[in-house]
Amino acid sequence: MEGPGQSLDTLFGALADPTRRLILDELRKRDGQSLFELCGRIVSFYDISLSRQAISKHLAVLEDTGLIACTRQGRTKQHSLIRPEALQYAERWIAAHRSELTNGSGKGETI
Amino acid sequence: MEGPGQSLDTLFGALADPTRRLILDELRKRDGQSLFELCGRIVSFYDISLSRQAISKHLAVLEDTGLIACTRQGRTKQHSLIRPEALQYAERWIAAHRSELTNGSGKGETI
DNA sequence: TTGACATGCAACCATTTAGTTGCATATAGC
DNA sequence: GCTATATGCAACTAAATGGTTGCATGTCAA
Fold this sequence. Notes:
The structure is a homodimer of 111-residue chains. Chain A is of the alpha+beta class. Chain A has one domain: Winged helix-like DNA-binding domain superfamily/Winged helix DNA-binding domain (Arc Repressor Mutant, subunit A). Chain A is built from five helices and three strands; from the N terminus they run ααβααββα. Chain A is globular, with a radius of gyration of 17 Å. Chain A binds a DNA duplex (30 and 30 nucleotides) through helix 4.
């Protein structure tokens, strides 16, 4: 029962956190990183200090949102990016609201 | 001291709420609506029941985010859309993360 | 000027969120 | 088997969020 509005909720909500966007940026630089790697890189590359569990929770949010996928590999867990439909949907939503007013379509409600 | 990361926080946070996206959709259909008008249209057109103050708070969030501007007009207050830089910035952010992995730029961190 | 109308403000409440700490579990290597 | 490593889980806290109610303020109109 997950409509586009619901997915926009979770998607924008997931992207609203700077740490989560940072994680996505890190995975974009190198896909398939483990929780341990991500922790190390985030606390060393950036001036942010977070516990392992905090980052683990952010990863769980990103996984629930469908932005990343996790596969257990021995005693590590690899995280890789996914491009869900919702990303393109959100991009179009923003693009529509970035363009001019009253674009004539008449049915602009895109909740 | 508002960097692009900060504005992405508030922007994505503002867009994460379905009622706020609904308000933006309504204003896109007809710009310059008052709080009273918006309340009436939202509770009548959609199956959502919210108090006037709830919608007023959402409008305040949208104004703080820079997505709408409010001008007092007599005893009513008109709300009109704005297209801040952050919208385009957010669109590019999503577009970058929607495209292929390891896009070679090497400096993908866009917090 | 009095009353109706549109909005503002403040206090309060429930839920969610972001974070922590502590302990448990599973796996790889010696 | 034992130990170090990498992660999972549960409980707890503080703060933010989304909502309500009640009352105050300002403005138009009869």
